[in-house]
Design brief:
Catalytic activity: cyclic dehypoxanthinylfutalosinate = 1,4-dihydroxy-6-naphthoate + dihydroxyacetone
Pathway: Quinol/quinone metabolism; menaquinone biosynthesis
InterPro entries: Menaquinone_biosynth, MqnD
Order of helices and strands: EHEHEHEEEEHEHEEHEHHHHH
CATH architecture of the largest domain: 3-Layer(aba) Sandwich
Strand content: 15-25%
Helix content: 25-40%
Distance between the termini: 25 Å
Largest sheet: 6 strands, mixed
Protein name: 1,4-dihydroxy-6-naphtoate synthase
EC number: 4.1.99.29
Number of helices: 11
Length: 287
C-alpha cells in the first residue's frame, strides 16, 4: 500500500471535505492518506519547500510551485459574489499608507490587497488574530477570511469587499479563486490519478451527506463554529462547485494568474489546465 501525506487547513471547509476519509466512508485498496492540519499560510510556505505529498494551497501561490506540484481539480473554494473582507474600526479614515493585517504573504487575498493598496503596509499574522489586532489598534485594518467573515465585532465595519477588488481587476464577475489542492509531481502518475479520484470521491460523498457529516464534526468538536454558521459557511466554500472544477472556474483561475503576472507577482503567465494531472494516461494504460 502506498501512503501519502495530505495537509489541509483546520478550517471548516477543509475539515468537511477531507473527513469522509477519516471516518472511513471513502477508501482505496492500495492507497492510504495521513493528514496534518495547519493554517493556510504555513501550508503555502511548506508547499514552497515541497514538503507534503498533497497539500491545500492558496490559488495565488500555485504559479510559484508549478514545477514541483500538479494542480488538482477537486476540493476547491471559490467566492461567488463574496469573499474576504477588509475591515477597520467604525468611522476610522484610512490613510494611503495604512497598516493592514493579512493572513499570509502568498494568499489570494494578499495578492488582491497589495494590487489595490500599493502604499499600504502589510503585516502578516494568523487569521484568527486579525480581528483582535484591529480592535486593539495594533493595525489600522485587516482582511478577514474563512469563518471570521460571517460574524465579527460590532465595533468594526467593512471598508471594502475583496470581491469588489477582484471584479475590478478581472473585468467581470468570474468566481473568485481562493483555495485548492496540489499534488507532488514525484508521485507516480498512476498513483497520482488514483489519489485525485479518491479525493474527488471524498468531496462528493461529503457534499451528498452534508447533514450527517456536519453533525459528526460538531459532536467531535472538529470545527470552530456552531451548527447554523457551519451550514452557512459550507454553502459558501464547500458546495457542489467544490467537487471538481468547471469551465468558469478554470477561466477565473487563468484570469487570476494573468493578473498576477501583469503586476509582477509571477515570472510568466500560465493556464490552469496545462498543470492538471493527465487522466488520459489511465485510459491509454488500459487499452
Amino acid at each position: 500500500m502506498s501512503t501519502y501525506s495530505v495537509a489541509h487547513s483546520p478550517d471548516a471547509d477543509d475539515i468537511f471535505m477531507f473527513y469522509a476519509i477519516k471516518f472511513g466512508w471513502v477508501s482505496a485498496k492500495d492507497l492510504h492518506f495521513t493528514n496534518t492540519a495547519l493554517d493556510i499560510e504555513t501550508l503555502n510556505e511548506k508547499a514552497l519547500e515541497n514538503f507534503y505529498d498533497i497539500t491545500a494551497i492558496s490559488f495565488a501561490l500555485y504559479p510559484k510551485i508549478r514545477n514541483e506540484y500538479a494542480l488538482l481539480r477537486t476540493a476547491v473554494s471559490f467566492g461567488e459574489g463574496y469573499g474576504p473582507k477588509l475591515i477597520k474600526k467604525r468611522g476610522k479614515k484610512l490613510k494611503p499608507n495604512f497598516k493592514a493585517a493579512l493572513s499570509g504573504r502568498y494568499t489570494t487575498n494578499a495578492l488582491l490587497f497589495r494590487i489595490a493598496y500599493p502604499h499600504a503596509r502589510p503585516v502578516y499574522m494568523n487569521f484568527l488574530d486579525i480581528e483582535k489586532a484591529v480592535l486593539e489598534g495594533t493595525v489600522d485594518a485587516g482582511v478577514l477570511i474563512h469563518e471570521s467573515i460571517l460574524d465579527f465585532d460590532e465595533n468594526l465595519e467593512v471598508e471594502r469587499e475583496l470581491w469588489d477588488i477582484w471584479v475590478d481587476l478581472a473585468g467581470s464577475d468570474l468566481p473568485l479563486p481562493l483555495g485548492g489542492m496540489a499534488l507532488r509531481r514525484s508521485i507516480p502518475l498512476n498513483k497520482a490519478i488514483e489519489a485525485e479520484e479518491m479525493l474527488t470521491k471524498t468531496v462528493a460523498v461529503a457534499h451528498n451527506h452534508k447533514t450527517l457529516l456536519s453533525k459528526m464534526l460538531l459532536e467531535r468538536n472538529l470545527v470552530r463554529i456552531e451548527d447554523e454558521q457551519l451550514q452557512r459557511y459550507l454553502d459558501l466554500y464547500a458546495n457542489e462547485h467544490s467537487i471538481t472544477m468547471n469551465e468558469l472556474q478554470y477561466e477565473a483561475l487563468n484570469r487570476l494568474f494573468a493578473i498576477g503576472f501583469e503586476y509582477d507577482f509571477y515570472d510568466c503567465p500560465i493556464r490552469a489546465k496545462d498543470f492538471l494531472i493527465p487522466h488520459e494516461y489511465k485510459c491509454l494504460r488500459e487499452m
